[in-house]
Specification:
The protein has 203 residues and is of the alpha/beta class. The chain is built from seven helices and six strands.
Length: 203
């Protein structure tokens, strides 16, 4: 007999350049608080909103597999890295709706992603495709302000309760560029992969 399709599906996108401990902590919180059957972790392809070139997708995908390896219900999904041209969340949600008819989708956002909500491609369509779930990061007052600002324009917006974590990929890349340790900001398998492939070093 065929396995039942998941009914509660999370979608967690980002550059994951590199994936770090706060990404995984947010995934754990989302899985538990939203009672998800599966969480698709989806590295960005061509990011129209970034003012820098991303690390090649093959490396970001492999690091993401390593970072989330211990979470059984996480699936690292490469679909956005395989698209030609810019990669948009709305397209991913439409695809998942078609692949899992009747399932409830939850779009998991960190605070930094939520801050840029109004600049997202076709962002007004997204709440009709998935429940938007926002978690704060280090500054709970700022995170609360973002949540309160988005609530009137996003029906059904949900808050994910998450302990403060002062971790950012930007800081990690800067540390690596200067030859500094990134323990414990990234997991050891990710740190070893970065070292093995000489990622984030300055020219």
């Amino acid at each position: 007999m065929a396995a039942a399709l998941p009914r509660r599906i999370g979608v967690f996108g980002g550059a994951f350049d590199p994936p770090h401990t706060a990404h995984v902590a947010l995934a754990r919180v989302a899985i538990a608080q939203l009672r998800m059957d599966v969480l698709f972790v989806i590295p960005t392809g061509v990011a129209f909103h970034k003012n820098r070139d991303l690390t090649p997708a093959v490396h970001r995908l492999e690091m993401t597999h390593l970072a989330f390896a211990e979470l059984d219900c996480v699936v690292v999904d490469p679909r956005e890295t395989q698209r030609i041209g810019p990669s948009y969340t709305v397209d991913t949600l439409l695809e998942l709706r078609a692949e899992y008819p009747g399932a409830q989708l939850f779009l998991v956002l960190g605070e930094d992603q939520a801050q840029a909500w109004g600049s997202w491609h076709r962002f007004r369509e997204i709440p009709g495709l998935a429940t938007i779930c926002v978690a704060g990061r280090a500054d709970s007052t700022r995170a609360g302000g973002i949540f309160d600002a988005l609530s009137p324009e996003i029906p059904g917006l949900r808050r994910l309760e998450m302990p403060p974590m002062e971790v950012s990929a930007t800081d990690i890349r800067l540390r690596l560029a200067h030859g500094q340790s990134v323990h414990p900001l990234v997991f050891d398998p990710v740190a070893r992969y970065i070292a093995q492939h000489h990622l984030y070093r300055t020219a």
